[in-house]
Amino acid sequence: MKLLTLANRYYFSTLLLVFIASGMASFFILKSIINREFNRKLFAEKEQLIDELATYDDLKGFYFLNIGDRLQIQEVPENPQIVTNLRDTVMYDTYEKTTLPFRKLSFAEQIKGKYYVITITKSLLPNQELIKGVSEILLMLILFLAISLVLINRYVINRLWWPFYKILVQLKQFNIKKPEPIQPLQTVIDEFRLLKSVLDTMVDKSIRDYRNLKEYTENTSHEIQTPLAIIKNKSESLLQETLTESQLHEVGKIYEAAGRLSRLKEGLSTLSKIDNNQFLDAEPIDIQTAIENKLCHFEELVSLKNIQVTTDFYSRPLIILNNDLAFILINNLVNNAIKHNVQGGRIHIVLKEDELCMENTGLPPAMPIEQLFDRFRSSGDHPDSSGLGLSLIKRIADFYQMRIRYDYVEGQHRVILNF
Amino acid sequence: MNLLLIEDEKELALTMAKYLGEEGFRCEWADHLMLAQEKVWMNVYDCVIVDITLPDGNGLEVIDRLKKMKSNSGIIIVSAKNALDDRIRGLEIGADDYLTKPFDLSELNARIKAVIRRRNFDAQNEVVFHEIRINPYAHTVAVNDMAVTLTKKEFDLLLYFVSNPNRVITKSSIATHLWGEDMYLADSFDFIYSHLKNLRKKLQDKGCGDYIETVYGIGYKFSKH
Fold first, then answer.
1. What are A399-413's pLDDT values in tens digits?
2. Domain spanning A192-275: which CATH class is it, in words?
3. With contacts defined as CB-CB under 8 Å, which chain A residues touch B173?
4. Which residues of B touch A338 (CB under 8 A)?
5. Is B215 helix (H, G, I), strand (E, B) or coil?
6. So what's the ipTM on this one?
């Protein structure tokens, strides 16, 4: 969920509660004020009426009174004993032709020795209209406030949080292989300054660690070569001496082991070079020619195993690859197809515009398919292979965002590479 | 034939010098750049073997000096770095060949001989081993003056053997020589065997002696017993 959405959510839920409470409160307060005023007016009119009845003899003769909406004055012979009372009622209005709410003030009064029962009736309609109007204004105000709050909120978040978003974008684009320092931030907000400085430290550290590791790997692989060369050459030199057969064998084993170690090191340093992005130069590689060259190179081995090679070149794709990596890729693919083949087996190569498919006969893989692309997974029957072949293929494919799949169906190994 | 080994690792240099000395080369050794520069300035070598990473500088500087002096020495770079860039750069500034550590002594020996042959180019220049005469340029082989037809790999194999006579040559060194460093298949050993069988038969057909001796489990030896 976005920060803005969440903030809005919190604001609105709070706002809603506050609005409901304050809306209701103001409605009732307003209503009671208006009611009180209304009643006061009614009683004031009562006083006025009594006063006028006392002053003028023939009240009905003038009728200039502006008392109530309806006035009922009834003369009664004796004291009716009515307590002044106030009632709300609904009456039929002949003009509006509908029933309307009214308030009725009834009282009895003795004026100039006569008894009267007087009822002043006043329409409640204007009051209700007023309450309605005020409520509407209030509602509009709330709405207006809500809208401005959304706008302010958005503005504030964009405005306040932009350093955060700026850092976020840079972190997203950060690549340890091509590190760029996080750009300076012009902000007065302490939290973001702190965030920036913490991130700077972290980024610096990871860049430094990465560089150290890279140098370490490179140096190690470089430094290993010399002692390896000494072991290899010394043992080779020893082979030339007159030795007993068993001594010769022992020396031969040392020599072989040195060779294996050297190949392993070579594979590992290629892997780390791929990881370190050290194969940047790329050029269009003609995959078909590369495959044909490789097959030609291994021709004798293919014929030694009596392997039948068939190719279907439907297209002639030119793929942008690093020369070394393309060599390793094709070399290892063809190499594997020969190495893990059986006597009198088959290799079938299909090349399309965006796909290379290599099928070869062979024994079932000695390990689960998912582990096949891991480092140091080599099948037991080839102790001389370093187990890095498929891992290298996978890494190169990943490096160029190619998709690689492997399956084994009915005695056929199949590697499919999508460019 | 004079060789200069520029190599800072003493043990490596000694082993190389021993092997090459037995091949009839007179080896001198320089373990740092200054000494190497001095030596190439003072003496004439048929071939200079240069390690690129030296304690006091880059071995490529020696190649520069040799080129400025218009030296006729053959130059072979030996480097622990197997990087295409280094290889291309080395060959561009005038090296004849490039070998990656660790290498086989038999391979180094064969390369040195090939470089020297090329330097003293003479189409008549032949490599002779008893009744076998190899012309490395015309790619022809004659036994007792009778031409023998060999495939390219058989020819390379024979030349490799003749370049390292009386030496135990390991199977992996042969495989690397024939198929390159990136090639490593257990199967290739079987192939070497079948190749050797063909080669031996072709040579013997012309009355050649059987010089290929099997060193069981290790490799082969080309010698007149």
1. 888 888 888 888 888
2. mainly alpha
3. 236
4. 185, 187
5. strand
6. 0.86
